[in-house]
Amino acid sequence: MGYLICNKCGGYYELKKGESIDDFDICECGGKFTFIEEIEGLTKSSVLMIKCPSCGNNNPEDSKYCLSCGEYMKPIKGRENLLDFLDFPALFIISILAVIIFILSSIIFGDLGNNSILFIDNNQPDNNLPKGIYLILIIFIGICAGLLVKGNYKKNALHGALVLMPSVIFGVVSFYSEMNTLLQYIASPNPIISLMIGSLSIVLLILMILAYSLLGGIGGLIGSIIHNKFKLDDNKLWKRLTEKIYHNKKINIKELRFGYFSFLLTILLVTLWSVFG
After folding, report:
1. What are the pLDDT digits (tens) for 197-221?
2. Of the candidates 17, 53, 57, which has an alpha carbon nearest to the alpha carbon of residue 233?
3. Is this structure's pTM higher than 0.70?
4. Degrees, nearest 5: CA angle 143-149-152
5. How many degrees, rounded to 5, is the angle at CA 216 between CA 156 and CA 155?
6. Alpha carbon separation from 231 to 22, 69, 227, 269 (Å, rounded)
7. Most CB contacts within 10 A, which of 9, 27, 167, 197?
8. Which residue, 141, 89, 92, 85, is CA-closest to 264?
9. Where are the domains of the chain?
10. Which of 63, 61, 57, 55 is closest to 84 using CA atoms?
């Protein structure tokens, strides 16, 4: 069922079947309750070990994020672990959403590889509609990440860019295939010209990756602003949704991390097979 821990006195209460954090207001001492799944190995004196530098809330010693404001708390000792910083539940969910959205959009508006956002043909305005839609979708996916991830603007912008990794893989491989065909068509016997053309394709490839990341990051910032503006953490419906994601006993973070990287690898292999197979 989980436990409620008071951030003032350190006392804890085991939730019974049918009870949730919404059924309780404050502790008898006046402190606010926070929810954790496991309390094994923790005593009343050891529960409160880390104070959030942002809001001052006391958190269990194994907490990576403040249970009050959601800010990431850097480890007291040692270097910060990037894998611990990343919000894998949000990355996994929004990345899958991104793939579904782009697949449906490709079916409706045409292949993304043939509608690269870097190439807009002013002489064919009708072909620019899919490009504009893809740009909007990239920002929308970033907004979804910014809404779900708990953290500061920098963290939300980073996750807004990272959730587009599957789409970036698809776009990069498709773009490389397209450029390779173009290079074969305009191949020059002059090695200097060939080198210049090859270098230009690499520059365009880097620009495309940066464009995806930048737009996703902007979306993450917008999502974070919306999250804070409407105080979604105080919304009961939003709390229930995030509790199912972050406090689900069936979800293991290590397994989810492995699943996320396996998902990226699968996307890469499938894309390579579809383009070069």
Report:
1. 778 878 888 888 888 899 999 999 9
2. 57
3. no
4. 95
5. 15
6. 16, 11, 6, 40
7. 167
8. 92
9. 1-80, 86-276
10. 63
